[in-house]
Design a protein that fits this description.
alpha+beta; four-stranded mixed sheet; elongated; 28% helix
Length: 235
């Protein structure tokens, strides 16, 4: 808005952003968590600007730009989106914040290969795998996981005596019960994929650990990304 100045700005290549996208039967906001590229700004406002003035300005701007208004709570919050980009504006007494998330999958930078899997399993009995990705809050395996999964298949075909347990782990976003169930579903989904690609079911099992075994700080996105993982355990 005119007369505003940027107080703070932050950019994450890949992070999570949670914002209300609908209302329940009591009129309360229903939050949804998105993953992708996230920008956040805080702006100071000129004297005399009210919170509802900020919301109404953005509402009009969003509509002119062809965005759909998904949620509005008077002078408190407005959320809109177009295609895979979501925007939330939250006015405060002397400033307003703006969060923009462009939903996309994380670019995998740490990959597993047959040799490293074999070395880890031989030395520790466990191997942490980061190249297996799922739909947010679901057990649907994303297509970019195939390369990593094929390396597990190669390992199992190369060592015909190996038996593995697939362990699912989550971060602490959400409730413990939901995360426990999600980790179990994801571990089973990996087993199903491996079986469908030639690994005998008798050589595989699965277990979900939910959020109970973090290996990094859940207060940071980098830490949460490390905690959202699949591990292989030698049986």
């Amino acid at each position: 808005m005119q007369g505003s100045t940027i107080f703070s700005c932050d950019h994450k290549e890949f992070d999570q952003a949670t914002m209300p996208t609908s209302k329940d039967q009591d009129g309360n906001g229903v939050d949804k968590t998105f993953e992708g590229e996230v920008w956040t700004w805080t702006y100071t406002v000129r004297d005399g600007v009210s919170a509802i003035q900020v919301v109404r300005n953005f509402e009009a701007a969003f509509k002119r730009a062809g965005l759909a208004i998904d949620f509005e709570d008077g002078p408190n919050t407005i959320v809109a989106h177009k295609a895979n980009t979501w925007i939330e504006v939250e006015p405060g007494p002397e400033n307003y914040s703006q969060t923009i998330v462009t939903v996309k999958a994380m670019q995998q930078e740490v990959t597993a290969d047959t040799s490293s899997l074999s070395d880890q399993l031989a030395s520790t009995g466990h191997a942490t795998v980061y190249g297996i990705h799922f739909e947010t809050a679901q057990a649907t395996i994303l297509a970019d996981s195939e390369g990593t999964l094929q390396e597990i298949v190669k390992f199992m075909k190369g060592d015909t005596t190996a038996k593995l347990r697939v362990d699912g782990h989550t971060d602490n976003v959400g409730t413990p019960d939901a995360n426990q169930a999600l980790s179990e579903q994801r571990a089973r989904a990996v087993v199903a994929w491996l079986v469908a690609h030639g690994v005998p079911a008798a050589r595989l099992s699965s277990r979900g650990w939910g959020q109970t075994q973090p290996i990094a700080d859940n207060s940071t996105e980098d830490g949460r990304a490390k905690n959202r993982r699949v591990e292989l355990a030698k049986q």
